[in-house]
Queue: 2 jobs
Job 1
Amino acid sequence: MNRPALLAPRDLAALAAALHRATPDSRLIAGGTDLMLRLRASGIRPDLLIDLSGLRELAFIRKEGGLVRIGAMTTFAQIQRDAMLAIHASCLSRAAAHVGSVQIRNVATIGGNVANASPCADAMPALLVLDASVGVLNRAGNIERRPLRDLLAEAGTTTLGTDEAIVDFSFAALSANQRSAFGKFGARSSVAVAELNGAMIVKLDETQRTITQARIAFGSIGPAAFVDDRVAAVLLDKPLNNDTIESFAQACSGMVSRSIPHRSSLPYKRHAVRGLAHDLGIAIQGAPMGSGAAEGFE
Amino acid sequence: MQLSTVLNGRQVSLDIAPDARLIDVLRNELELTGTKEGCAEGECGACTVVIDGVAVNACLVLAAQVQGKSVLTVEGLASAGHANALQRKFVELGAIQCGFCTPGMLMSATALLARNSKPSHDEIRRALAGNLCRCTGYAAIIEAVAAAADEGGSAQ
């Protein structure tokens, strides 16, 4: 049996050198929670595995001025626990808390989640509404910044080259007038793969009453997560209240019909997305769970 | 490739395949069959082991990634043939039915108690959310973890 070669770079220079040897059959392995399954299920035998777990310099969460930076090898457990992110990127904090189980969050990384590019990856809608840019290392050892949306391709693939690796994510910290939320709809309350997920950021005017900006992203609807401006437009110049959230929920339903018109899951998802919209609405209003319009389902 | 790791407190070094899963190395190479393989996809938690203090699914971890780390399996809980406090509480309170999930439950609980010596029932539930018990003996399992915490955690 052909066994892959294994390289375990300890710094970025060694990673760049390892990328020199990568072919289309090679794989980068971060936490491994997706890749280990994919390798077994597909029967693919990579010619080279590049183990990123020794790159300690890529496990960090920092705020530099108004900018948040997160290293690609930061685990979801670290993101979930980080007090700064809970304030300045709460949608990402909440998304991290909804990834898999304790065991998965302890090893699964934000870089791996994006590179694996599952349509239902929980970090994806959160990073999209935060308008994150991605630091990509190439084999020459240079780091280039690209908008996250430019990385997304078909389900399970990215536009990253075989000789490139994600090193970090960067986005503007949320300001005092902004609020964000993450929502997820799955078969059970935890340890579930998302059947729908989404994140939103709204900006309120000084009186904290009227929505002046809104950005919404969804996952698990079609091949890749996406930002939807038509749904966001429904919220503009509206008060942040239950009536607005109800029109938002209706707009989400229309968005699902537009996005996956021929999928067998359409009738289910266009209804279920209303529940997701109400969850997002409740979270963004900061209302305690279970109050107000808590039920998304008639 | 050569893997060197601290396993249940003892330094071990052995030759492994570069793409081997940790669970296969534990069970097949090291004959530590206490760690169980249930779903093989990170859903059931039967294969939970503790690496550098945190619970992980051994079925999803590349064995090569524990190079230089410390791995604790269920075999490492007892000392000199004596079950530790957590294991004793599982036995005393009937937290074991068919027993297949027990090693994973014990390891998730061990990681929890190591960082939170007095967890609430809610914290115990959350820590065990990645461990399934097909016998549905959850109530007794949660009680056993709480009782072990009352007795000073998993200290041996």
Job 2
Amino acid sequence: MIVSTLALVGCAGNGQGLDNNGRPIGESSGGSGPLTADFTSIQNHVFTPICTVCHAGANAPQGLRLDSTNSYDLLVGVRSNEVSSLLRVKPGDPDHSYLIQKIEGHAAVGARMPFGGPYLDQATIDMIRQWITDGALRSPTATDKVGFTLTAMSPGPGDVLAEAPANLILGFTHELDRTRIDGSTVELVALPVSPGGQARAVDATVAVIDANPSALVVTPLVPLQSGRYALQVRDGAITDLSGAALLSGSSGDSTLMTFQIGTQP
Amino acid sequence: MRVTTAGYGTLLGVLLVAGLPHAARSEPYLAVQQGYKCSSCHVNPTGGGLRNDFGIIFATNVMPASLLPSNVPVWTGRIGDFLRLGGDLRGAWSTTDIPNQDRQQGWELEQARIYASMDVIPGRLSLLVDEAVAPGNAETREAYVRYSDPDRGWYLKGGRFYLPFGWRLQDNTAFVRQVTGINMLTPDEGMELGLETPSWSMQFDYTNGAANTGLGSGNSFTGQVAWVQPRGRLGVAASYTQSDAGNRGMTGVFGGLRTGPIAWLAEADCIRDEGYPEGTRTLLAGLAEANWAIRRGHNLKLTGEYFDPDKHVNEDQKTRWSVVYEYTPLPFLQLRAGWRTYDGIPQNDLDNRNLLFAEFHGFF
């Protein structure tokens, strides 16, 4: 019985010419050196050698591929399938990152990861926690994360409207972090009629649209009179779920758009 | 409930109180030893999970080392004429040695599952739910409706269910189950058309694809055909998953053979995976297993496994060897103990670990 079974199974590789992850030397950094609190190191020491045995390819559990090509984009700022109220990795908040809950074994759903053990030691988990606390950046030097932009607005920039709109709509390329949106995120400003005049803030509410979480609606609380208006954003106030900030427009200022009501300024 | 003696009632009561019953991990060597199809003992034609009437009789009268006195009532699996319940619970103590790392050891509740099947039209229309209740909050593993044509042998299943691909092993960490990603941890959603005849078992599935979960894109086709004979079986399986993150194609061949007291299982899978930085990787996974039925209620299992993570890279292969003793002292209770050793490239400590474990498995 033993001999027959042995004959059906091959032998393990001797690792010659390979790095710690079993890839040809030089293909990547291969997990050499100690684990550090940056994504590349965590990928090479944890995700690639341990997690990709299951979390790889088109049958990856929960759609989570943890190979080096896909892992960052499927982890950071992405909702968990098992507990959709949590992000897999919430930058700056390891306690509310589902990844941490799964590897520490206190997630609301399912088994502790890596499935069947052995589990990550606390020093490794602490390093992943530190990476998340530091903003879960793609690389240690990255500061802009994955920026996103404004793609649509109503009224359009420079539009001249016959009547005051009930709402102003702004559409973005990413789903917004609604926890950071409030009345001060975007300011509706009545621009001065004449040079040297004072701009005047208009009371308005600002909210993410439930049915379209990548769009904001600004609702003036007072009727808008004829004149020119601008929507201005506080620097860094609008972020997506990964914590990435809205990229500045080509002008680099804080004005998202201007429009006019009536033909007379 | 038509159930139990005092002793048996106590055991089942403990399982219920503990959060309940076990999981649907199947034992395909039993089918090979007996020359049965999966559907002989399980409600699900592809095996695992809730046991049918015959499966309960088998668990009561064939599996255990000691039979209960004939006047002792036992669980039948049925509540009334239309509802069937079942469950599984597995817990284990294990110790793992990894080179250059501290030893890990301890107890763990591996899983507890409850099954229910409502036979709306007995033999034709049924609804089945497989709920994992531990660890963590409840999670629906399977929930489907199945319409069967008992005269012609075909059935149509729709909902969430496990895909058929090779041996549905009890051990979800076996290379062939881990690497293919088709196991009893990764249900998929879609439709399955199946045919069960005395000598053939075949399934064809159109599903979302596990990796497309939550992404809303892609799909998966899976098919499996097995020729089942009293002395063994031979099957082939294939799967293709389209995904934005890279497509995956898999083929597999699997078989079982009974030679006296030994039931042999084997499976070989080839996976072509797109989406890696260098393009496509071809992965190979294999399993060979011998189960020696030493005597009633005692089984010695020897398993050898092989995994090549990239056929185009030399000397990166991994193997895994297991020796497991399974003792079924009485109906609905199995005790297992085993040793497992991993062998991989010397640069990777984790691929060279050793595991010693003892497991209890209660089921009904």
